[in-house]
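User: I'm writing a tutorial on reading structure tokens. Could you give me a worked example: one chain, its sequence, then its tokens, then a sentence or two explaining what the tokens reveal?
Assistant: Sure. Here is the example chain.
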Amino acid sequence: MNLKLMSLLTDLLLCIVVFFPMVSAIIGYLIGRHNKNMRNYFANAVTGLEFVLFLILLLQQILNTRHFSMEIPEVCGLGLHFTLDGFRALYGTIAAFMWFMSTLFSEEYLIHYRNRNRYYLFLLLTLGATEGVFLSADFYTTFIFFEIMSFTSYVWVAHEEKKEALQAAGTYLAVAVIGGLVMLMGIFLLYSLTGTLMFEDLNGLSSNLAYHGNLSPREGKKRLWAAGICMLFGFGAKAGAFPLHIWLPKAHPVAPAPASALLSGILTKAGMFGILILTGYIFLGESSWGSLILILGVCTMVLGALLALFSIDLKRTLACSSVSQIGFILVGVGMSGLLSGENVLAVRGSLLHMINHSLIKLVLFMAAGVVYMNVHKLNLNEIRGFGRKKPLLHFIFLMGALGIGGMPLWNGYVSKTLIHESIVEFTELVREGAVSGIFNVDAMKGIEWAFLISGGLTAAYMTKLYVAVFIEKNSDEKVQEKYDSLKSSYMNKISGATLTISAVLLPIMGFLPGCVMEPLADLGQDILQPTGEGIKVTWFSAENLKGAAVSIIAGALIYLVIVRLWLMKAKGDGKTKVYVNRWNRYLDLENLIYRPVLLKALPFVFGVICRGLDSLVDGIVVLLRKTIYKDSKLPHELEEGTHITHMLGCFVNDLQRLANATIWRKSPRKVDYEHKYAIIHEEWSEERTIIGRSLSFGLLLFCVGLIITVIYVLFRMKYRL
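And here are its predicted structure tokens:
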């Protein structure tokens, strides 16, 4: 095919896959106003077609590795820029597949829900926005679609409109808005520093020091780090990285299960996409940046696993698990920054664990959705025994549990092995003195053990869920009989096929890592720009199996000792045990720190400052009036009104007395026109004051905006000159 024609067709497809779902969302909403079933079919068709279009783009990248770029000029001044490479084609396809599966499952899951039309509207809007993030070629385009994605997905969390849902949605929106604003500050700083936001133009910026303007390398480095930290804050908030992970454990339990699968599996990866760009482009080869990401990754990984272990809510456990798995990915990304010369293992491990986590959480959250849509409960003590005598659901959940637990022959094992090997490799380099930094051998050994123990915690909490739902019986025999009676009617054929297809992928990827996982890594790894020669990994060698064995043994011990002996207690009858959550609720970061700081401390501090400034100004005014501008007393001060209303009122009152003495003698009138005209004058004065204040406020805002614009223009002109 002619190269020019291929480029034109690719540009057209890039526009379609981003904007087609968003336009279809409005069409689907209008259809749903008249026919609910047609709306469901339409949504299924749109997400299915989106998946097919991305398969075409993916196939094109496999057959022809040439990158394609397109621009939609003059959008908000800078225009929108999209590009297609291996990573974008791969993750766009994964996102489209997950949306297609979730949309198919949504029909049965939402059958008894209200506001389904609204749900499908924002489902498709978020699809287009998410694909826009993954296909973006500059930070400006990323930011626009990132914010659209945040606001449209907010509706998922608030869908049930219950107190818990609205509170969780508020937390989600607050984190998204604050993260977005901080990210925007970073984008402004980066643009003022470099004069561009295009990813390719920023490649290797940290080491090249080619800054826009007359800045010293040291000053430029400081500003670059300030921009990077701000953007990391925004992207990390969406990814669910510590300490901005607070929305994940609260949003997932209240959102519909298909939406939870997308929130956990894809929207967190939109945040990771930004972190990959920062690491692979701007801070390429920067060991200090790699150290920062590694520290954040370890904290996120360990904390998420602990929260999941203590949780007794099915979807909350899976949500906390997502926090932990994001930590595993961040550890890999951090290692890719530290191993700047030979980081291919870390790069491939990070990418593959992103893919694995997305697909695994699709399976697990949809399986949790099957439980919830039948019993409308998520507490482990209440859903205990639901999965018994349901072999298909048993198989589906088990595939996800073995995958995320890193069991050999499942996909999670492959990516975790690569990340673990990168840690071991860097530890050896530190021991040999080949690299320097803040981590010594003991620190790296501690990180390795944190990695392995977190893997053990993953195995322990997934075993806890599996045993509670599929092995143990419910303490209430009648409830267990009810659960057992659902063995053939707990989900329809479409939902069953959707979950089965999603689950079967996990062991296939793990059984055939050389045929499936390695080509995926080859296709998408360039986003982190791997260095060094590719290493042929013997996936099931004794050395690689040893790390998995340590995590599995640790998981078994944690489950038997901590879960069974400490996180369970006997009921009043002493015959059965129930799961208990021993995590101290006062350790909730949102209620412990964020809400008190944002809603109490900051308003109090700024209130005191504003009151002080207000009192200072009043004091100065009073002082001036008492000294320089002395007030002069009026010779005759009226009680109300003005001299005009007083004179006019007295004149009309005299006319009224004359009329009462003559023509109105039989029915005299008693109206105080002086008071009446004074009241009318006061009303007119208040209206003029309100209008004046409104105009003044509008002019004030206009002047503030104009001043900021002038300062920015002068600042830009200064650096251009």
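What the tokens reveal: The longest strand covers residues 68-72. Confidence is low (pLDDT under 50) at residues 717-721.
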